[in-house]
Amino acid sequence: MAGLAQEDAVVARSLAQANKDELNDEFASEKRHSVDVASISDAHELDGIHDGLEFPTEEERATLRRVSDSIPWSAYLIAIIELAERFSFYGSSVVFTNFIQQPLPPGSHTGAGGKDGVSGALGLGQQASTGLTTFYQFWCYITPLFGAYVADAHWGRYKTICWSVAIAMLGHLLMIISAVPGVIEKPHSSAGVFALSMVIMGIGTGGFKSNISPLIAEQYKKTKQFISTTKSGERVIVDPGYTISRIYMYFYFFINIGALIGQISMTYAEKYVGFWLAYTLPTIVFCLCPLVLWIGRNRYIRSPPTGSVLAGALRILRFCLRGRVSWNPARTIRNLKADDFWETAKPSSQSIESRPSWMTYDDNWVDEVKRGFKACAVFCWFPIYWLTYNQINNNLVSQAATMTTNGVPNDVLSNLDPFALLIFIPVCDILIYPALHRMKINFSPLNKIGFGFFTGSAAMIWAAVLQHYIYKTNPCGDYAATCKTVSTLSVWTQTGSYVLIAFSEIFASITGLEYAFTKAPKNMRSLVMSVFLFTSALASALGEAFVSLSTDPLLVWNYGVMAVLAAIAGVIFWIVTRRLNRQEDALNNLDAGHVEGNLSHPAPKE
């Protein structure tokens, strides 16, 4: 009995010591946690942006409703600049298809087709029209890579935008020259000047687009969630991610105001006056860009150029790839997806002796670069989406020309897309998205993008079915595009395609802009945004492979192939991004406060 008592006493002492150790560990953990929280709070109080704000606990993050903050007025000024630029861009490009494809109407000196005719100038046919407009899309979305480099490394976003506006203005003036009476009547001369204007405008557009999107979001400076109380007394979390999403929603809203007014007015200017007016009016509106840029020059929050960090980011990637690439594809994929892939590039993972001399950054910079590369990996799927969207720039315009228009310009129907966007963007912002948040439905950015693929596919299914019935109701059967008699179907039956495309833009395109900004390191925002825009250039290049389907009698196949590709891409996108989707909050909450300008931050001390 004494032995048992002694044994029990030993066990009791062991348990007591274990409980004491556990309590000490918990206390130490809580102490470390409180120190971390305190240091974070102190950092916020010192940054001049988050001073005096109350930050949510993990429990509050899981239970409180999230809302967006108010949008700064400087962001609206930048949105006006974008409105004017998009008016000029879409207002001029909406008439490209007719300008290139259709011949100059008999007796016309301006290309105007009048009430019962189709406007035209160069008469190069549908394939040439699709090819040139596809090239223009490609060029306008490959030049942002150059514009982003110039902004991030040398000039900053504001100065790059100013110079880009000047270059685009020259392109506009050349486009007017290609369409004035006397030049338009000489197809070879007109085509040469017109092609040159497309190249110059593409350079200006690229420098503008890669920098205007990050600039507008940078007007909102808060980066951390904080607690606020509504007028009704409800405690809510003000989420910067939701605010950036809302900024881009209304940024896109302004884009489509410009696009809608520009496209509708220019199609009528082209039809009843001529192409010279359809190119002149956008140029006049474009003059608002330098004016508003100058007016708000002292109001905009600007990020200075910090030197190119692309080389450093690629060096980190190369370092992480060491020993992970194998001749066995399955092993390589497994190695690249490993949880510790990026850890080896962190200074804290290297001893002082083995650390390379170029590793002068901190651990947080690696997390930022990791997040940027993950965003670029998401963008790899966007060329398939843009492939479907680009149909509204060429083939759907040509489809409208084979239907009964009753005096409506065949290229005015494309305005149903921005018109639908102007209606449904506020509906999503005010009704649909808040309702989903209240129901705790996680309609995250990646979920939105995936849904955009499926609505884009639905738009192409609509177009394919409609094309089938055009062939059935056209006197020339499967050769409707070259038939002098149009189908009896009303052109307004195209509405379904354009509305579905508009929904796909809300889910995929707007969210893509948001994702590019929120996931990019601060000194790589223009670059990551340009990568997102570059996916449209890839889609245009990919679209060249499908130009052979852009003619009778293959147009049903054209739309059907686009629908299938978008649907398959949407399924695969959903599968491969499920894990990344679960990390959304963690990626957004990376603290980049001490990684501002370059890779010269000291590594942590050992």
UniProtKB/TrEMBL annotation:
One of the Pfam families matching this protein, by short name: PTR2
Main location: membrane
UniProt membrane topology term: Multi-pass membrane protein
Molecular function terms, GO-annotated: dipeptide transmembrane transporter activity
Spans traversing the lipid bilayer: 161-184, 190-208, 250-269, 275-295, 372-389, 419-437, 449-471, 491-515, 527-549, 555-576
Alphabetical UniProt keywords: Membrane, Transmembrane, Transmembrane helix, Transport
Family, as annotated: Belongs to the major facilitator superfamily. Proton-dependent oligopeptide transporter (POT/PTR) (TC 2.A.17) family.
Protein name, UniProt field: Peptide transporter PTR2A
Organism: Botryobasidium botryosum (strain FD-172 SS1)
